[in-house]
Write a structure and sequence with these properties.
By secondary structure, this protein is an alpha+beta fold. Helix content is about 40%, strand content about 20%. It folds into 2 domains: about 45-65 and about 140-295, no CATH class; about 70-135. Strands 1-8-7-4 form a 4-stranded antiparallel β-sheet. Strands 2-3-6-5 form a 4-stranded antiparallel β-sheet.
């Protein structure tokens, strides 16, 4: 027989579900409250503001792209294949000409016969196909994740960026560049256009001039050429690229890292890591305000 809501057979789980529904409905009905509703606040926390500059930067920033290929294993075989193909067409055309015409210039020019040209062209083509398949299977994937309060170098970190290789092949770092923009003292948004890419020493010196000290307000380890990205699929097992304290996030508006790596075949890939944006700063400021003003929660 079906039981009433207030019957003694009602379990604690059902009471908890009814209480949760009542709280949500109460928040939705309080349209005149200072704080946003529970549903709206949850959506803003998960999705972020679509009108902010940080979200547009992250969505418009290109993903990993191929910068260059190794010349000895990619371009030289292709050049040799073109030469063998042209020579093969030349020899086949000569066979269809008359004997008197073949003995005259320039048709008497011969580099390799038809059999040799066809054999070499087939071998180079097979080599290029094998290289293409090997590049696909051993392609590194630059992936990065963000954490809070999990830095290896600094305490009370608000945002920590870990980088890893989620692909199948090796990833050797060959170039690291940085650029940043400071936040306006009054507006709180990024000032001026995006800066130029700088080396590690230049970005540390310029941040020092703005009042941010490395290993105190933030941590930016120096990653030199030849370093290897950890080959792992776990998000927290990567290489720590940068960590920010709350003070650094309130002053620093944007920070991007250009990371270029080299794979097993010598091809180079690069990706721009959006380590700091307007959306990230907004989340930190909102968390700080909620801690200072608990009665507005």
């Amino acid at each position: 027989m079906r039981k009433n809501v207030g019957s003694p057979g009602m379990t604690a789980r059902n009471y908890g579900g009814l209480l949760l529904v009542g709280v949500v409905m109460k928040d939705v009905s309080l349209t005149g409250s200072r704080r946003p509703s529970t549903i709206r606040r949850t959506i803003e926390t998960l999705e972020g503001s679509t009108e902010g500059a940080g979200m547009s930067r992250e969505t418009e920033m290109p993903l990993q792209r191929l910068v260059s290929r190794k010349r000895s294993s990619y371009w030289w075989p292709r050049i040799f294949l073109v030469i063998m193909t042209v020579n093969l067409i030349w020899e086949i055309t000569k066979r269809n000409l008359s004997a008197g015409l073949v003995g005259s210039w320039p048709w008497k020019l011969t580099l390799l016969d038809v059999a040799t040209s066809a054999t070499l062209a087939s071998a180079v083509l097979a080599l290029l196909l094998a290289r293409s398949q090997l590049a696909r299977t051993n392609r590194p994937v630059i992936s990065y994740s963000s954490f809070s309060d999990e830095s290896f170098f600094i305490k009370k970190a608000e945002r920590v960026i870990h980088v890893r290789n989620a692909g199948a092949g090796h990833a050797i770092v060959c170039l690291v560049k940085y650029r940043f923009r400071m936040a306006g003292p009054r507006s709180g948004v990024a000032e001026g256009p995006a800066g130029e890419w700088m080396d590690w020493q230049d970005v540390v010196d310029r941040l020092e001039e703005r009042g941010l000290t490395n290993w105190r307000h933030y941590v930016l380890p120096r990653i030199g050429s030849g370093s290897a990205l950890p080959l792992t699929g776990a998000a927290g097992a990567g290489l720590e690229m940068v960590a920010f304290t709350r003070q650094a996030m309130l002053v620093l508006a944007e920070l991007d890292i250009l990371l270029r790596i080299e794979d097993t075949l010598g091809d180079q890939h690069e990706r721009v890591l959006v380590c700091m944006s307007e959306r990230h700063r907004k989340e930190v400021i909102e968390r700080r305000q909620r801690r200072r003003l608990p009665f507005l929660r």
